[in-house]
Design brief:
Layout (H helix, E strand, L loop, with lengths): L4 H24 L3 H6 L6 H12 L2 H14 L4 H28 L6 H8 L6 H33 L3 H50 L2 H12 L11 H8 L9 H8 L4 H35 L6 H4 L4 H9 L2 H39 L5 H22 L7 H23 L7 H21 L7 H18 L5 H9 L1
Helix pairs in contact: 1-8, 1-15, 3-8, 3-11, 3-12, 3-15, 4-12, 4-15, 5-10, 5-12, 6-7, 7-8, 7-15, 7-16, 7-17, 7-18, 8-12, 8-15, 8-16, 9-12, 11-15, 14-15, 15-16, 17-18, 17-19, 18-19
């Protein structure tokens, strides 16, 4: 394949812009709260688009279209579940989490919030939650690096292992330098690129296929079952796909965007923006995979490798359909989806290592300057581990994401949701929920019982554990209840 200089130049310009934002954010970072949470001063637009971009990783532009290409429109159930879950997360958790983190000693990380919310003097919740974040987020980060490596490998014919380092390096640089402000500002640009790519590409694809009805006719002639929303899916399978929405309540990189907003009114405005963005992007990803079925049916010899690895479908279509300059912009959007999520995850891991382990257990008197630099070193450490995990080129992006998503959703989801809605919840109840949720996901994933996505039993059993243990436990202090009711 001939590498287009125009496409390469577009990529390089994009990377230069993102890196420049990292330098600007470096100058705006005055203390550790700025580095981890942006000083809690994000407006509605940045909050909304940063939350969306950090959520929709490479799976949106690679995993989801690839799944629809292979299985048809029945893969849409994941998108429906995600849209419902995201809305409920904004509605039930976002504003309250912002308020309660401020009232609980101005907590700037999720383990920080758990510690002060439940008056955990032994800091068991802090250590447990930090370790859970590190375990599952390292896997999550690996999925992002795999997605980025596949993009560079396919687009520029670069060796997969070299692509790993190139895919991770830009994200590491601007996250290392600018922290939360850098990833929030860049996420706003990245979210805009993602939306452009997912609206524009399906339109051109449909036009190339001869229109919507022609495309549908071609797909029906190939396999009419690919037009069926429930083909090949049992009730359990549909419920498992919808249950992806449960994961939102426990994703630290998304919850951090709520904690960084400047006010509850900002959250309300951000919710509307974010949901519109999300629905447009999910619809575009599904449309792309769906109409790609017709395209490759009409052009069976163009790119047979797509059938070997369906997650390359967006990359191949972009290369085939667009002028190199436009292709470069759209492929930059795929890289944006990877970078926006990966940067948020790296920062959450770094904050857990720095604030919740290093400062809390080893250097209680560490200065802000020291904390910032330790945080930057932790970004590098987690990046190296994630790159090592991503060395296996046979990994599927959606598979890695589904495991990490379930682990975090079941471990933290019930704890976060009940902590902002139920004043009777206790420290031991929260601990029981985290441990039961984590253990259930790991065991259920290993044995694959009943074909049910592991987040369902994990979320249910963790919620039951929280309720039972909290009710059997001593009641929280009257001071804590007063703060809860007042807010």
């Amino acid at each position: 394949m001939i590498i287009s200089k125009s496409m390469l130049l577009t990529f390089l310009i994009y990377i230069m812009i993102i890196t420049a934002i990292g330098f600007i954010a470096w100058k705006s970072t005055k203390n550790f709260e700025d580095y981890i949470l942006g000083g809690r001063k994000l407006g509605a637009l940045v909050t909304a688009l940063a939350a969306g971009a950090s959520d929709m990783s490479g799976w949106l532009l690679m995993g989801l279209p690839g799944a629809v290409l292979i299985s048809g429109i029945s893969e849409s159930w994941i998108a429906i579940g995600l849209a419902i879950g995201a809305y409920l997360n904004w509605k039930l958790v976002a504003s309250r989490l912002l308020i309660y983190t401020k009232h609980n000693n101005n907590a700037i990380t999720l383990p920080d919030y758990f510690t002060y919310r439940f008056e955990d003097k032994e800091q068991i919740l802090r250590l447990t939650s930090a370790l859970i974040i590190l375990i599952f987020f390292t896997i999550y980060c690996a999925s992002g690096i795999v997605a980025g490596a596949r993009l560079l490998e396919t687009t520029f014919c670069i060796n997969y292992f070299i692509s790993l380092f190139l895919a991770a390096s830009t994200t590491i640089i601007y996250t290392f330098m600018g922290g939360f402000l850098a990833i929030s500002w860049t996420a706003t640009i990245q979210a805009s690129l993602i939306m452009f790519a997912l609206i524009f590409t399906p339109i051109i694809l449909i036009r190339n296929n001869g229109g919507i009805f022609s495309s549908i006719h071609t797909i029906a002639m190939k396999n009419i079952d690919q037009l069926n929303m429930i083909h090949g899916l049992s009730s359990i399978a549909i419920i498992s796909l919808l249950s992806w929405g449960l994961g939102y309540f426990g994703q630290p990189h998304i919850l951090a965007r709520f904690m960084a907003a400047d006010s509850p009114s900002t959250i309300r405005n951000a919710r509307r923006i974010s949901m519109i963005w999300m629905i447009l992007c999910l619809s575009g990803a599904i449309s792309l995979g769906f109409f790609a079925i017709a395209f490759f049916q009409q052009h069976p010899d163009i790119s047979p490798e797509v059938l070997e690895n369906s997650e390359r479908v967006f990359i191949e279509l972009t290369r085939l359909l667009f002028h190199p300059w436009i292709a470069g912009i759209i492929l930059a959007a795929i890289l944006s989806a990877v970078m926006s999520t990966l940067s948020g995850q790296l920062l959450v891991c770094a904050s857990a290592l720095t604030k919740d382990i290093y400062k809390s257990f080893f250097r209680k008197d560490a200065s802000h300057s020291e904390m910032i630099w330790v945080g930057r070193l932790m970004v590098l450490l987690v990046s190296v581990i994630s790159i090592i995990l991503a060395f296996n080129p046979t990994h599927r992006v959606l598979g890695l994401v589904s495991y990490a998503w379930a682990g975090l959703g079941a471990s933290f989801g019930p704890v976060v949701l009940l902590s902002v809605r139920w004043s009777r919840m206790t420290r031991n109840g929260a601990l029981a929920g985290m441990l039961i949720g984590t253990t259930t996901v790991v065991v259920w994933k290993h044995y694959s019982w009943l074909g049910i996505y592991e987040i369902i039993p994990g979320f249910i059993l963790a919620s039951i554990a929280i309720l039972v243990v909290s009710l059997l436990d001593c009641q929280p202090s009257s001071k804590k209840k007063h703060i809860f009711i007042k807010t």
